[in-house]
Amino acid sequence: MTYCARTDPGLCSEEVYTRETPYPDGMLLDMHVHSCHSIDSMTDIGAIVRTWQKRRILSLVCDHDSIEGSRRVYGEIRRYEPDIPLLLAEEITTEEGEIIGAFLTEEIPPGLSAAETLDRIQDQGAVSIVPHPFCTFRSTAIRREVLQECIGRIDVVEGYNARSPVPEENEMAQAYARGCSKPVSVGSDAHIPVELGRTYARLPPFEGPKDFVRAVSAAEIVFQKTHPAVHSVSRMVKSAKRAVGDEQSSIRPRRRAALPEWPGIVKTLL
Ligand SMILES: [Fe+2]
């Protein structure tokens, strides 16, 4: 695995990859992205599709407890390029912390134990990824003793999370993965459009979920840490959705909305 420092420091570079197709020659994949189907994200489907159109960077869309965002993104992309694999994914809230399922065929409900969630992922022939395993900032990171119990059944450890505020926690994840001989993934954990296209893996060609794990272990990493201020935006989006409701995230309003629709409040600040 190779680490690459990007030379373009801008938030949203206009750099365009000119290759006709990212597949089967290989794939640029941001392995952790949220869409508006997550309670704390306001990134619309079109923004994720445009990142692929302009930059040839695909997104593993893993919304909190929903595969609908990934279904919509890949439905759109595959209309233009049917050879792109259908990468349905979800960041599943287990009783013991979050686990990402990739190459899913069906949504997995939240609230199961980590072991039951891994059973469901395996039953679908899908791939399990543990996101931000040593992050102390997020209360949703998997519990360490549970990670230790389950590591034999986990396919990939996220070693580069652009939203992790403490760099040492990413380094711990990389060292842990090395110690367990697990491949390391890289994700922006993007919740707002400006985070898209800054962090990704350059994967060699692969065929199906199991071969994907092999491809991740051979990937080249392009990583840019995100400014911690983005967490405030996510919290604001979450509060706004809870206050006024949001159909895409299946959030009912907490009270009769006295506020204008949340996108109007939030978008003006971005
Ligand atoms: Fe996430």
TrEMBL record:
<dbReference type="InterPro" id="IPR016195">
    <property type="entry name" value="Pol/histidinol_Pase-like"/>
</dbReference>
<protein>
    <submittedName>
        <fullName>Histidinol phosphatase</fullName>
    </submittedName>
</protein>
<dbReference type="InterPro" id="IPR052018">
    <property type="entry name" value="PHP_domain"/>
</dbReference>
<dbReference type="Pfam" id="PF13263">
    <property type="entry name" value="PHP_C"/>
</dbReference>
